[in-house]
Amino acid sequence: MFIGIGTVVNVATVLVGSILGVLVGHRLSHRTRDLVTDALGLVTLLIAISSALTVGDKVLSDAVGSSAPILIVLGAMLIGGILGSVLRIEQRLEDFGGWMQRRFDRGEGRSTFVEGFVSASMVFCVGPLTFLGSLSDGLGRGADQLFLKAVLDGFASIAFAASFGWGVAASALVVLVIQGSMTAVGALLGDVLPQAHVTALGATGGVMLIGVALRLLKLKQVAVADLLPALIVAPLLVQLLVVIRN
């Protein structure tokens, strides 16, 4: 085993799952593919709610006070959303997906490719396992969390690719960059975040995943990528309150 093995396995399962999904997808009716996407959206909603509810964890309330955790998530979402909107993260991610679609076009429509790329990237990269698992791998504590995530992402990529096609496979690049970067941070800087900060980050990621679920269920096209800076803002707000309280 070596540092980074978790990310390598995760990328591989996304690629293999995407290939299987594309192969299976051609044999499924449009109604069945829509049903698969709806099922994935519902499961994503379940995972999102479970993650978001960690905002009530004792470790966070002990660090910042009982009334602050929800305000931290709210503040992180608002500040992060403003920053992401100014930086046009969603638009840049979609443009990147569009460039890849044109570069490797095999007859798919652009919207399907981009939607698969963006939605899969968000599901695979927004969540506590992405950050906790990558940091743990980088610190040399093992990649068990990323192995678990790899299995989940592999099955999810089959369902995604059955509906969205090759755009899901392109999301493996985002997995490689984000998880690889976080693993490098863990290896270079050690244990970066205290548990309270990680909890706030996970709860914020859970709220963002609700936005992904709404997109998958075709209820609301939430610009989830524009909210990504909230994952940085949440731990910073925790640290600010910890300093104030002390």
Automatic annotation (TrEMBL):
Q: Does the keyword section mention Glycosyltransferase?
A: no
Matches recorded under InterPro entries: DUF554
Show which residues constitute the signal peptide.
none
Q: Which residues cross the membrane?
A: 6-24, 36-56, 68-90, 111-135, 155-178, 198-217, 223-244
Q: Which UniProt keywords apply?
A: Membrane, Transmembrane, Transmembrane helix
- Please indicate if the UniProt record lists Transmembrane helix as a keyword: yes
Protein name per UniProt: DUF554 domain-containing protein
Which species does the entry assign this protein to?
Answer: Kribbella pratensis
